[in-house]
Amino acid sequence: MRGWRFPARGRDGLIVLAQQRIAVGALAASWRADVAFDADPQGLADLALYCRHHRYRRFHILVLGCDEEFRFDALPPVRGRDRQSLILRRLEQAWRGLPYRRAQALDDGMLVLSALTQRESVDALVQALLAAACPIAGLYSLPVLAAALWRQVSPVQGPTLLLAPVPGGGMQQVWLMPDGLRFARSGQSRADAASADLLADEVRLTRHYLANERVLPRDGPVSVLLLDGDAGVAAQLQQRLDAAGESAQVSVLPQADWCRALGLPVGDDALALWAEAILRHGHAAQYAGPAVRRFETVRRAGQCLYWSGAAVMGLAAIAALSVWLDARALAARADVQQARLQTLQHESQRVSAELVRNGVGDPLALRAVNRLYRDGMASWPSAEASARGLSRILLAFPDLRVDTLAWEAALPAAPTSPDDASTPAAAVWTQRIALTGHVLPPADARQALARIDALVKRLQAERGMRVAVIRLPLDVRSQATIQSQTEAADDAIGALGFALTLELPAGVAS
Fold it and tell me: How far is CA 298 from the centre of its chain?
């Protein structure tokens, strides 16, 4: 085992499983191996120890040169859970108990089932990682990744064969159709002049098999792309296929052109290309089942719990901060109110001291006087207040003029019996207002009577007020006061005069 160096922690790791070697490195677009182990029991033990003490977050496994078996079936037009249950049942019927399998539903209703059938080396690697409690995020094969990447480089127009060299020796055949991967096969032939005849025979036999299985059309041209191959080898392969009567068009696809089409750094390491494919399409192009990914499931569950706990702690911190801010605001308001109360207390003490200094008297005596005023004198009637209230009412009648106003207050009646005297009762002051006036001309008698009647109704609407009409314009009532001709002559508009008497309570005195 070579010496290893430790990359940055917290990154995903990529394990490349070849026939004789196992390479480990950080998963990135510019992948390169950090350490390599032999594919034997001692090498697997060293790999498990390395992965256990190396802080990779999780591991992805890329299997090179492994045999894949493909089966084809028709998928009924079902959706939802029925579709998933049907696919799982077809997988169980094809490979019962095999953990490395996948299914792909094509647009034409065909179901492509595939599985990794060369299990010994894959099982040994997976069991070594699981024994070391290392999370496995996915298990990938080169054909599936190549098919996923080729869709981004160029759309598939017809039957296409991608010949990809396998690191460590061999050639991988990837048969593509516009709707996806149809078949893959690993061969021992190489993309050189000596192996051109063998490679042409493998391509021809594979195409006949797929045509018999009705996976590919029997007639029609096939596009053959030699990934990172030599132009001379492509020409020889074209001659061999033409001589065998195969309608094929062979071309070379340099890896540099593929990298530029994908926006990747140009390099000569094919594994970096497949590492980028895992980063882009790893979720949908893997063979790992739930049993293989169980530690990854536990890791994701722990991560979800961690972030959920962090979110709860954040919400609790926000709630605590909100309560603390509210408490501070409440304390600030309490301090303001306390300061105002202290200011009032200091002002009261200052006024009391000023009253004592000026000889006004004891503040307690002032309070007694104030109480006496409020309980007794405050309820006494006021001529000024009554006139002010009457003036507000007369503002609504600008065509009426008050000539005279007489105000008087009647004392409360004294108790008439000893029982009434022994029972304290509220005494009501009564005030009487006598006013005379006239209606301003021009106004006839009918209009004058209507205005006086409106004034009387407005006065009667006041609380507790009683109105007595003494005289009206052109008064012909039997109780009306007879006005002499001399008095009428003195008043220029005596015919439109009126007289009213108002009675209303002034307040309550104990």
Answer: 28
Q: 228-266 burial string, b = 16+ CB within 10 Å, else e?
A: bbeeebbebbbebbeeeebebebebbebeebbeeeebee
If one counts every other C-beta atom within 10 angstroms of the C-beta of residue 382, the result is 14
Half-sphere exposure of 475 (CA within 13 A, CB side): 20
Measured between alpha carbons, how far is residue 32 from residues 15, 121, 269, 481 in Å?
11, 22, 8, 128
Asked if 266 and 240 count as a contact pair (C-beta separation under 8 A), the reply is: no
In 3-state terms, what secondary structure has residue 85? helix
pLDDT, one tens digit per residue, over 377-428 is 666 677 788 888 888 988 889 888 989 988 887 765 555 555 554 544 445 6
What does the alpha-carbon distance between residue 72 and residue 70 come to, in Å, rounded to a whole number? 7
CB atoms within 10 A of CB 499: 18
The neighbouring-strand residues paired with 184 are 174
C-beta separation of 467 from 500 below 8 A: yes
Contact (Cβ atoms closer than 8 angstroms) between residue 301 and residue 294: no
Please, what is the end-to-end C-alpha distance for the chain in angstroms?
114
Q: How far apart are CA 385 and CA 506, in angstroms?
A: 10
pTM above 0.90, yes or no: no
**Burial (0-12, 13-18, 19+ Cβ within 10 Å), 41:** exposed
The encoded tokens of residue 446 equal 């009918």
Contact 473, 496 (CB under 8 A): yes
| Cα–Cα distance list, 124 to 16, 65, 465 (Å) | 14, 16, 111
360 pLDDT tier (thresholds 50, 70, 90): low
- CA pair distance 328, 344, nearest whole angstrom: 24
Residue 18 CA from chain centroid, whole number: 48
